[in-house]
Amino acid sequence: MVATLVxxxxxxxxTPLLDVRALSLGFGASKTNLLEGVRYSVEAGETxxxxxxxxxxxxxxxxxxxxxxxxxxAHIREADIRFRGEPYDLxxxxxLRRHRGAxxxxxxxxxxxxxxxxxxxxxxxxxxxRAHRNVTEAEANDRAVNMLRRVGIPAPxxxxxxxxxxxxxxxxxxxxxxxxxxxxxxxxxxDEPTTALDVTIQSQILDLIRTLQAETGMGTIMITHxxxxxxxxADKVAVMYAGTIVEAGPAEAxxxxxxxxxTIGLMSSMPKLTGPRERLTTVPGTVPTIxxxxxxxxxxxxxxxxxxxxxxxPPERSFGAGHTALCHFAPLNERLERA
Amino acid sequence: MPNAILTAMNLTRHFKVGGSLFxxxxxxxxxxxxxxxxxKGETxxxxxxxxxxxxxxxxxxMRLIAPTSGQMTFEGRQIDQAEGRAxxxxxxDMQFIFQDPFSSLNPRMTVGRLVGExxxxxxxxxxxxxxxxxxxxxxxxxxxxPEHGERYxxxxxxxxxxxxxxxxxxxxxxxxxxxxxPVSALDVSVQAQVINLLADLRDRLGLTLVVIAHDLxxxxxMSDRVAVMYLGKVVEEGPxxxxxxxxxxxxxxALLSAIPEAEYGRTRAQIPLTGEMPSPIxxxxxxxxxxxxxxxxxxxxxxxxxxxxxxxxxxxxxxxxxxxxxxxxxxxxLPTGGTGRSEAAKARFALYAEAIAGQKTxxxxxx
Amino acid sequence: MLSFILRRILIAIPxxxxxxxFVFALQKLLPGDPVLAMAGxxxxxxxxxxxxxxxxxxxxxxxxxxxxxGNALTGDLGISLRTNQPVTExxxxxxxxxLQLATMAMIFALVIGIPAGILSAVKKGTVTDYVANVxxxxxxxxxxxxxxxxxxxxxxVKWQLLPASGYVPFDEDPVRSIQVMxxxxxxxxxxxxxxxxxxxxxxxxxVLTSDYVRTAxxxxxxxxxxxxxxxxxxxxxxxxxxxxxxxGELIAGAVLxxxxxxxxxxxxxxxxxxxxxxxxxxxGIVLVTAVGFIVMNLLADVAYVLLNPRLRS
Amino acid sequence: xxxxxxxxxxxDVLDPDQSRTFVGRIVYASLCDKLxxxxxxxxxxxxxxxxxxxxxxGTSVTFTLREDVTFHDGTPFNAExxxxxxxxxxxxxxxxxxxxxxxxxxxEVLGEYEIRFDLASADATLLAQLADRSGMMMSPDAxxxxxxxxxxxxxxxxxxxxxxxxAQDRIVLTKFDDYxxxxxxxxxxxxxxxxxxxxxxxxxxxxxxxxxxxxxxxxDLGQAESDGGINVESAVSLGYQGLTFNVDNGERGDNxxxxxxxxxxxxxxxxxxxxxxxVVFEGAFAPGNQPFPPNSPWYDDDHPIPERDVEAARALLxxxxxxxxxxxxxxxxxxxxxxxxxxxxxxxxxxxxINIEITSKEFATLLQDxxxxxxxxxxxxxxxxxxxxxNIHQFMTTEGGINDSGYSNEEVDRLLDAARxxxxxxxxxxxxxxxxxxxxxxxxxxxxYHQTWIWALDDDIQGFVPYPDGMIRLEGVTLEES
Amino acid sequence: xxxxxxxxxxxxxxxxxxxxxxxPENRVWKKFRSHRSAMLGGILVTFFVGIAxxxxxxxxxxPTATDWGAVRQAPSAAHLFGTDEIGRDVLSRMIWGxxxxxxxxxxxxxxxxxVGVPLGIAAGxxxxxxxxxxxxxxxxLLAAPFLIxxxxxxxxxxxxxxxxxxxxxxxxxxxxxxxxxxxxLSVAAEDYVDSARAxxxxxxxxxxxYILPNILPPILVQATLTIATAIIAEASLSFLGLGQQPPxxxxxxxxxxxxxxxxxxxxxxxxxxxxxxxxxxxFNLLGDGLRDALDPREQ
Lengths: 339, 367, 313, 482, 299
Ligand SMILES: Nc1ncnc2c1ncn2[C@@H]1O[C@H](COP(=O)(O)OP(=O)(O)OP(=O)(O)O)[C@@H](O)[C@H]1O
Ligand SMILES: Nc1ncnc2c1ncn2[C@@H]1O[C@H](COP(=O)(O)OP(=O)(O)OP(=O)(O)O)[C@@H](O)[C@H]1O
Ligand SMILES: [Mg+2]
Ligand SMILES: [Mg+2]
Description:
The complex is a heteropentamer of chains A (339), B (367), C (313), D (482) and E (299). Chain B has helices at 54-61, 84-93, 111-122, 128-141, 158-170, 188-205, 216-222, 240-245, 250-258, 298-302, 323-328, 343-356; strands spanning 4-18, 25-39, 43-48, 69-74, 77-78, 94-97, 176-180, 208-212, 225-230, 233-239, 308-309, 317-318, 361-363. With 367 residues, chain B is of the alpha/beta class. Chain B folds into 2 domains: 4-15 and 28-223, P-loop containing nucleotide triphosphate hydrolases (Rossmann fold); 245-315 and 322-355, no CATH class. In chain B, helix 3 packs across helix 4 (128-141), helix 3 runs parallel beside helix 5 and helix 5 packs parallel to helix 6. Chains in contact: A-B, A-C, A-E, B-C, B-E, C-D, C-E, D-E. At the A-B interface, helix 8, helix 9, helix 10, helix 11 and helix 12 of A face helix 5, helix 6, helix 7, helix 9 and helix 12 of B. The structure holds adenosine-5'-triphosphate (2 copies) and magnesium ion (MG) (2 copies).
């Protein structure tokens, strides 16, 4: 099964696995879109990291793709998405449900609360299998045991019969991963899968995801705001600020050659483990709320370089090899000078 | 120790837990026999995996919970049994910053009242007007505006709320502030704001800080000294630089090696820790770390290691039977160099830092 | 498990003692001489004096109390002043009746209240939600006696569908027994259904926003399965606890309902006993309902534990 | 064939010697025969005793008994049995019949079926007592064995024998095959069902769940009559309803209303008894101003029911010194009819300047307060007795057992005692009339109305005879399924 | 404590901060007004409170004036809602009865809240013996049948509307004790309560400023539900002669009388029944709205 999947992925390599060309949506009565023209793509076998501060819309965008946003509160205003080259309709609930858990799987940030406390973990995994495959209960249970083994849980035959509360956070997150991968999805969306965990456990989980990805060739979207995790795992990075992707590109380019002032600010805010201990450079101010969202560049209220022109929608500038940034002045060192 | 402001001797705290409907309660040894000294004016950091007893220790130091056994002194006064007036006074001199800025502010009180409340208790002689002025001052001190006093906590972002918490802690004019993971709940850009703020306040007001965290980069950035905890015990302590450069306890090493570094291509060989952290309800005998220690030997299963001087730097101590041998094996892997930023990128970072510091820029005439 | 139950029983003892003292204090507080109520229209003084002696009503209250407790411990709750029947026998006769009524009412309440609560939570803010809430509130605000009589007039008199009142023991004729009990159970169940509906709704609303429900959806499960299996299973816990608390209300409500439909159960027994100052019966009933209440709560706790894998280990 | 009868409440203990409720007596009518019975016109007629003869001075009476009677347990009925019954009624500690038989000093068995009762003095009320619970004959063997618990399984000699009882649910009696008058009895069993709510009682009849109900609410009359499947029968009761004033019962008797009869008479004048009857009882009850209803032979025609006269009432108030009006607190049982009644009275009285404050009380409380003298006025009534003495003596004589108003008048005491001891109807009537002259002036009780017993029956029921005592006698009653 | 002017190094908040309306009362009111069902509830309750207060000046017949010629008359132009069993105007009695019924509902719930909440707070916050004693008494009270409790209290206090309210209040108290205790247990575990202890705030103030305001919302909701029960309980109590004394009207006693005439005069039950329903609905909608409006975290 693994083999066929890998083959499949080779045959469709030309088109990205998931190609979000434009995604805009708003909540409730608000006219301003929370997500504005979000675009990114991920290919099979590749890891895309979405970074950005808390509340910028990372989770909302992935929930939208999963079809897990409530239709009565979230209004999708624009959605041009392809999955494996085919149009992917965010309004077709039935189709979304077929995709969910089968081709596209998701794991969430909170391992402690994301598993149903009332059911055995084995049943919860088996349920995911049976939702999409026509298998017997016994087969589904076997699959559950196998999956637990694959995510490195010792004695999986016994563990399937345990309840979530009997497991530690790290184990639960592994169960979540096992559940997400139970149907060999083509795409895994991991929404801050390690934020709630210790560094030692975190590195185990990241290793696990990496290994599994190598085995099955699935594409991964990893949401995080921990740049350390990004540096470790990402092939590509998309930097999100207030609902827009302000910069995207190969991981190396983002780390070593960031273009957008926000990306630079973010990198500067990280305390370092080596080198001299200097006062941290920060991104001053706070993120605008949806009501106070400025026109044009959304970062303009906090950007130390903001000029009048920033009231206009910034152009997307390209810096080669898929590295783009939305800024009037990128590259800064070329377009700006000291006053 | 003439300069010690807070000392703790053999602090222990047990909880009765479980006692579920079926079983009798078990003893959870959250903190076991911890001794610490905090010097006036220094910043002491306490690190450790979650659940290792950091918060319990902090709350004990703050006397929010009583120790099961052990002594504490504050400026030479015995405080472990303080009650009533003595406790109120202690709380003027010693303040607390909570981990979660979202849950630690009463959602139904305005910020002004929240910050003014410690004044009400500790400086009752102040008139209402003076108190309001003082609250405005405090808010300004943490980078908020006095008008913000009329608003409710939920109208603020996480970073702003943490500032409110800090303003509140500063209100009584404390000598020592204990922060229980004051930045863990914040994301990097906000975290940086709060870290800078704390550093400024410490420098300006001459505060002593005890900071709890599990992010080692944050620790390294903020502290003078570090104590590393594992499963209720301090396993290593010493000056920050020594701990990061020459960690001696295998747990400290593992912790340091597991931190992903935010630099492209920079990696470090990991010291793999197997298994999960044991439960404090039933801690392993001997060295508590032996179940996960890659260097564990027979002796570790029986003998409880004491904190010993490492001889690397004054005050650097580790609780491991074999740290000399492990160090000799050269076990602590060094990070690789990373790919490094381009010159253009470095220029951009410099430009950014200058702009933040107030340097104006203007668009270059485009070619 | 056993030790848990034992501990709970130990905790309940002071409650029972408190209740028994309370009931005895009542005797002192309540005006209306039981003997006067019993002596008949003529109120012959000799009879009155004799009855006082016979039922030891001249003893000081504490003496009466300890006599009663002593007898109660041996299973003797005295005899009814009104019919001369032993109280235990009377209660043994009435208990199945009220149990049947309460059970059927509870079933009604559950069958109506829970689905309505789930529906209105799932459809929060829609017309369905409003309608369900309004119906629930009307269930709460229509007095039982009113609803009861309306039902009798419509169902029994006008449409002649069900017997108007009375009782047929279940073991005698199950079908008829249930038929007779349908209306009273429904009336008793409405207010309960309303309460259950409101609570189910709020429990479901909490659960529906929880992470594990999101997880269930992310697995691609059908909405039906997400709601009925994942969400409801967890919303059930508070509902079970509540249902036990509602037992008290059920008994209180049974008083009026049994009166209207002439169901010869506990409620009717207690009303008649109170009005006739038949203290032995009042005391017996209060004691038994109190114990019943405590047992219900105990069962709820056990169910709570059983429903909560976390507490089971 | 089973006959189902709905009663207003549950009977108490089924031992004629211990029993005290009205509904209990309805059950006995089918369960226990008495020495004598009454006609609808209140004449005493034979039942277990075929004839009786008074001695000259009225201090003894000799009964000849029916010979073909056995109790339900097979024990034969004879003079010996009667003697033991009387003895039990007089000596059983729990017996509530003692005062009713207080005039009987002893019995003498004269033959198998002949017995003489010896009396302390002439007692005109005795036969009427023997027409009720005091005259009910129980199997002596059964009561000897059961003692005070006889009521759990009563054994008498009536047309039906006891089968089972479930408290508050039903009492089932089955036909007694050896009944002396068995050919008059047409049912295999009779079931009594207590159904307190009048609306529900009627609903049960309409839905066919029962065959007969007693005490239909007057307000339901129209509905019952308009229902083609229901017949209604009625009889004015022997009892009365009124306001009892505290004239001299304890400290609270010392109040304007207790001290000044003019006030009480003013109130009596202020209320329109016809209006009450029309508004509250749809005109079905009988207005009243005496302990006996106007259709009773004992009614004193010299004091007819007064017309409502607000002016006269005001004048009396003024005369008593309350020209500006006066307040009267009345305690009322907290049930629909009394409350409705009192609100009507209240409304009418207010027009005469009497401000009535209604305090509704739960019945047991009301009764206690009343007997303890803790009241000013109390709305209460009396279910009535066959003999006139039962409606007046114990209420109006100084030592009367139920003289809650604390009324005391030597002349009245004398007249009422005298009326007891003569068997001459005309002479008794005269005593009562003389007493009435005084009592009408003093008005310790203001009588308002006499209830009418209303039975609603399935129209398949034939042969039902309404009796003023409110009992249901099943001799000759038939049910023909249509 | 050394004071230094705000250092420039600390990020000052940008000056143009947009918060629409600073005053909390205004915000609560605004939120409340935009809550459609809450407004409906408010209007219903205001309407009934209004007629209860205005009863004396409204152009309606005397609620106790009897008319022997018009007993149990169906609604007509003369009597819009018909007349009752002794010829009184049902509309007028309904309007006057609003007073007694609303009072019965509100006052008895107020009693239950004022007694139950402090006890619940004490039990929940102090725990130990205080909790044990309060909890046991509460359970005992919960287990005792309402009717018996009510009769005893009625008898003890004497029959009147006030005492009926007290009786209902006392029997609703255990519920509030329980609810409050549970809430306190969860609120007391919140960080902000610890933060109050950390600044050395006395217990008294912790209870009044930290615990009380935060446990209020569910209590508010329960209170509005209990108002319904209380209005109906007044009816049951007037059945025991405990409630409003005749001839003064209350909806409960009107319904109680009406039940005997459901066949002959259904309007006697219909209108007070509808009034009770509307008031209960009103209070519940109001409660839902208030809870949302008072919660600063709720949008
Ligand atoms: N149902 C909703 N209604 C209105 N606003 C919403 C809703 N859900 C999310 N939001 C808003 O959308 C914004 C983006 O939320 P999102 O969860 O995507 O942030 P995030 O980037 O994942 O942050 P974090 O790192 O904290 O998880 C937030 O400001 C949030 O308040
Ligand atoms: N009140 C309490 N009752 C019972 N157990 C407790 C209590 N407080 C803490 N513990 C337990 O004590 C241990 C140490 O907890 P503590 O909160 O001090 O850890 P921590 O190091 O602060 O963890 P984190 O990083 O997650 O905040 C944990 O196992 C915890 O479950
Ligand atoms: Mg998120
Ligand atoms: Mg902690």
